[in-house]
Amino acid sequence: MNVTTSPTQGTAPERIRFKLDGRSVKLDPRVHAARGDLADLALAGILFSAHYARAVELTCVAAGAPVLAGDTPKAQAVSELLRGESFHALDVTTDWAWGFCGHDGYVGYVRREALDVREVINSRIITGTAPLFSAPDIKSPVADYWPRGARFAAEAAGDFFACAEGYIHQRHAGDIAALERDWVDVAKAYLGQPYVWGGRGHRGIDCSGLVQVALGQCGIKAPRDTDLQREGIGSPLPSDAPLRRGDFIFFPGHVGIMTDSDNILHANAHWMAVVIEPLAEVVGRLAADHAKPIIARRRIGA
Are 41 and 54 in contact (CB under 8 A)? Predict the structure, then answer.
């Protein structure tokens, strides 16, 4: 499909007209922002839409905000934004913003009250949960609790980081540029968190969310869903290759991280929590319903 543009004539304000030649293509709606009435301007050359919009970058200012499949509180959660992560809004109403997450391009709806103008982020939470104090004093009232990976703009204030909402103790936060080195250790920090579909660490997490945030805190970008991760993380591992710490095991609709050659760490609906257990036990549970419980093995690095 080719796109040609031409400015309007006369004294009217300049605008762009698109002429689309050929068929519009079908794209994955999870990571391409297009709906019946509107699409991301970045898709104008490959997808026909009645209207296009240029994304406006906003910042999540809630400790965590569900990304939903529709503009109703009862819609299914498809992902989650953590405090300080960006959201690129294409359509904003009084209650909702529709667009895509900055860290992975995942499309959905977020409550408008959870978003604000773009921030310049310099700090992030490095512990499992960090209390947000109302004053630079550990005896002051706690206004909120921020999850690991939450990001914020801050200035040093004694033993604390001062931010727009309050104070985070310096033991609980670090420089945004300081990355973790071991995604297994990062994932272990979520042990015991409840399994929540669409969660990425604010009061709950799911299997692909755990993989994504663990890699993300090590500076490695990963897609959101297991099928996308199965094609986008590392390289395929032969079925006869010995497993080792940090390898990724994919099951039908599920993923986990090996902590060593025998045990897997994963957020799962069987235990409804993040746990470590023998890989053989997971395979045994799935064998009754799946002839091939393990459908892929991936490794980052040699």
Answer: yes
Q: What is the pTM of this model?
A: 0.90
Handedness of CA 203, 75, 84, 224 (dihedral sign): positive
Strand 96-101 relative to strand 86-92, pairing = antiparallel
- Cα separation, 122 vs 155, whole angstroms: 9
What domains, with CATH codes, occur in the chain?
1-116 (2.30.30.40), 123-175 (2.30.30), 183-299 (3.90.1720.10)
Longest dimension (CA), the chain: 73
Instruction: Determine contact, residues 155/175, Cβ cutoff 8 Å.
Output: no
Confidence of residue 209 (pLDDT cuts 50, 70, 90): very high
User: Which SS3 state, helix, strand or coil, does residue 203 take?
Assistant: coil
Pull the structure tokens for residue 169. 């103790």
Q: In Å, what is the CA distance from 176 to each residue of 66, 84, 143, 145, 234?
A: 23, 11, 23, 19, 24
Where helices occur in the chain by DSSP H, the ranges are 183-188, 207-216, 226-232, 279-287
Please choose, from the candidates 59, 67, 64, 86, the residue with its C-alpha nearest in 3D space to the C-alpha of residue 164: 59
**3-class secondary structure, 112:** helix
Residues 33-77 pLDDT 10s: 999 999 999 999 899 999 999 999 999 999 999 999 999 999 999
